[in-house]
Amino acid sequence: MAVENYGQDFLLILLSFTALTMLIINPIYSWIASRKNFKKIITYCYSFLIINLFLFIFYSRSLEESDVIQGMWLGRVFYVWCNIYSFFVVSIFWVLVINIFRDEKSRKLYGFIMAGGSLGAIFGSEISVRLSESYTQYGLELFALASSLLLFFAIILAIYLVNSNNSEVLVKKVGGNWSDAISNIISVKEVRSVAIYSWLFTALMTVQWISAIPIIESYSELSPDRIVLFNRIEQLVSPLTLFTQLFLTYFVISFFGTSLILIIYGILFIVVFLLYGLAPSVAVVVFSQALLRVFEYGFNKPSREIIYSQLGKKDRYKSTVFIDTFITRFGDLTGSIFVGIGKFAAISITIVPLLAIPFAGLFSFTGYKISKIFKDQPKDL
After folding, report:
1. Rounded mean pLDDT of 254-275?
2. In the 8-state DSSP scheme, what is residue 324?
3. What is the distance of C-alpha 71 from the center of its chain?
4. Mean pLDDT (whole number) for 62-85
5. What is d(CA 292, CA 280) in angstroms, rounded to the nearest whole number?
6. Which whole number is the average pLDDT over 191-201?
């Protein structure tokens, strides 16, 4: 939607609106979180998203073919909303995880927990491949119905987990103010360091995938072919990620710790950017996606969540969500601006990844600094 329907130049505007919307919504979420416990937080937030899905469906199907302007604006709003949907759903899920599994041993099981996400990605990508030809006719309805049903089951399972674990931190109100997430990023060193790390990571990832767009466009002019290519990449990446999460994550984190994982990520970006700059091809895109995605969801994401679990209660509920939603979207915007500056300066798209290499080095240095800040034991509830 962002690139094909509106052109790559419109992507920066969409990312700007997405980041701005995340900034507006986060204080609302923090206000709700301050006054409720986790069961009510997930019930209110997920139910709100379910209602939104059906509103989009009803409005989109009420439009006539002549309503081109309304359809265009609906697509733009839906693009922004989809970012909010996907990031908040996952982030609130991890609020549950990092508040239940907080001791040193259970934190190493985050890879096993993330394996569920990989199974979902395999299932979802297969559906996308099979619906690629008929997506414009039925895909939107099937997406909304399936997502709504799964979100409903997620609410039920979350409440069951809270009740079965008898966790006091999940039953009691969170407390605090609506501004805690923003103010703590400025005033709390631990939160600020993780926020910078997440900002750099998403900015670099955005540079990577925008650099891949011209390569994918040269692969085929047909939208169904691109959908199939992206989902074939997903079907390659997801099993590799699943294998890593089930059999490697626990042992790598146990043996090497989170410090090395946080540091080595920047080195991988350097390798990818060198490949994009010196040997751009579809094969490089596939390799880069596989390398970065497997490392992200197999090692780096669990390591970041281990860091999150060591924060104080209010930051586990609020700052982590703010980082995983607004900061990451701001990172996307930053990466898009970086590529846009290169385009404005008439720099070839193959050179832009090479110019991002120093920032990948800074990313590794930030991971090193985080490893020095955090201790092994989590803070008090």
Report:
1. 95
2. I
3. 27
4. 81
5. 16
6. 96
3-class secondary structure, 309: helix
Structure tokens at 359: 């920032």
The domain made up of 8-373 has a fold known as: Growth Hormone; Chain: A; (1.20.1250)
Domain residue spans of the chain: 8-373
| Residue at token pair 């590799």 | 240
Separation between Cα atoms, residue 84 and residue 65, nearest integer Å:
28
Phi, psi for 101 (deg, rounded to 5): -100, 90
Q: Are 343 and 9 in contact (CB under 8 A)?
A: no
- In this prediction, residues 357-370 reach a mean pLDDT of 96
Q: Which amino acid is at 259?
A: S
Model confidence band, residue 139 (pLDDT cutoffs 50, 70, 90): low
Mean pLDDT score of the chain: 87
CB 118 within 8 A of CB 242: yes
Within 188-322, where are the H helices?
189-219, 223-247, 249-278, 282-295, 301-309, 313-314, 320-322
pTM of the entire predicted model: 0.87
Question: How far are the Cα atoms of 7, 330, 352 from residue 349, in angstroms, in the given order?
Answer: 16, 21, 5
